[in-house]
Amino acid sequence: MSSSSSFTLAFLLSTMFMFILFTNTSHHVKGDLIDDICSKTDQAYHCSWILRTDPNIKQDNITDLSNAIMSRIQDSSGIARFEMYSSIHQQKNFNQRTRLDFCFDTYYNVIDKIMGCANDGDYQHCKVKILYAQTIIKNCDNMFIEPPFDEPSFLKQTSQDVLHLLNILWEICNYVLAGQKM
């Protein structure tokens, strides 16, 4: 092989290597939608895990992300309502039963207010609904602060889960709204 053909081959290989290198790095510069959103939540790792492990999500699609979170909010709230319904009917204490009944209605309102809020494209209004949902969930939790009524463990866990999911939905709205300002 002559030196000019060796030089040409080396030049072609180095050019192809540089092309591949720059093509792959430009893909990473774009950023990761899930990381952009989850890094702003109160539990970034958990947020990332939720969104990356859901097989129904296209990870670069904001609508898929918001729909997945709303679906999880609906599922968590539905499970809590089922548990509360059972607890209400087993509870002998009137005050405890009244508190559980209030929370039962609270979780229905969360589902009603949140579902589809991001789908209408009014992300600012969706944030108002999220604030409302967070407030009524915290009001439910606060009803159990006074002794001797302890908040049932399933309700405490569900409250934390739903508040975290609402925080993720809040950051999705912020992400979209920030993009609209550009």
Automatic annotation (TrEMBL):
SUPFAM superfamilies: Plant invertase/pectin methylesterase inhibitor. It comes from Solanum pinnatisectum. The lineage of its organism: Eukaryota, Viridiplantae, Streptophyta, Embryophyta, Tracheophyta. This is Pectinesterase inhibitor domain-containing protein. Keywords: Disulfide bond, Signal. The keyword Signal applies. Residues 1-31 form the signal peptide. InterPro entries: Invertase/methylesterase_inhib, PCW_Enzyme_Inhibitor, Pectinesterase_inhib_dom. Belongs to the PMEI family. One of its GO terms (molecular function) is enzyme inhibitor activity.
